Input
Amino acid sequence: MTPDQTSRVLDMRDAILGESMTVRRALPHRQQRTVGAWCFMDHAGPVQFDRGDGMHVGPHPHIGLQTFTWMIEGEVMHRDSLDNEQIIRPGQVNLMTAGRGIAHTEDSLKDGSRLHAAQLWIALPESRRHGPPAFEHHAVLPQESVDGFTATVLIGSALGRTAPTTAYSPLLGMDWVSRGPAQTHMDLRTDFEHAVIPLRGQVQAGDELLQPGSWLYLPTGRDRLSLQTPDASQFLLLGGTPFEEPLIIWWNLVARTEDEIRSALENWESGQFAPVRPGSPAGPLPAPSLQGVRLKARG
Ligand code: MN
Output
């Protein structure tokens, strides 16, 4: 067994979303760029915004990925350049497939309210990343009661249930909630690598006790995982077959070469993306400068 093939606890780092909101970022991580095709993972909140304050992420582009939003507390309005306008509420998933390009905004429905959410990106494979943009909203997802947990299948299949969410590579996303002490085992696909990401409370996954701010990476080859919570808890279980295509992740763009990133950025800055459906009070996000930057694909 090489060191790369062992499970390991990794940290989450603080990052700024939009203009001012702090989130904890698990992926990409220096020691683990992706988990399956999951290539980005932000944990936002739980936060109680002050009166007159909320999350407002102005127009910004995406290419080469799917944005996957799992809402835990609060309500957020999504608007995009396909003219969609969709409120996402707790227990629901928004999945936006950028393909060759899409732009969107995300705004707290009401300022001064609570927000708790996970936003993830899924890298699109070569066969889909040049295709048309799309958006889907899932108000209801398959749910099972398991040994004191409520387990929801957000994408992929588990516990005999399959989520309606569109995936373009073998992928798993699950939410687990316990209201007190609980203990179970989960069967894992041995061709998947996995991640356990705590959102609230503590979870012991295998030998590791985790809480928000840390997460567990599990390599392929594992067929079973014990899950135990000492008290009320919530966590994500992510998985997928290792994503073998090279990736450059820069700003909100996922591509294979620096030229692709530069050209998407030029298209955005020269107004070549379709306009986002109006309604967000926030202005367009400025892209960081690419001057003097050399981007090299890893994977
Ligand atoms: Mn976005």
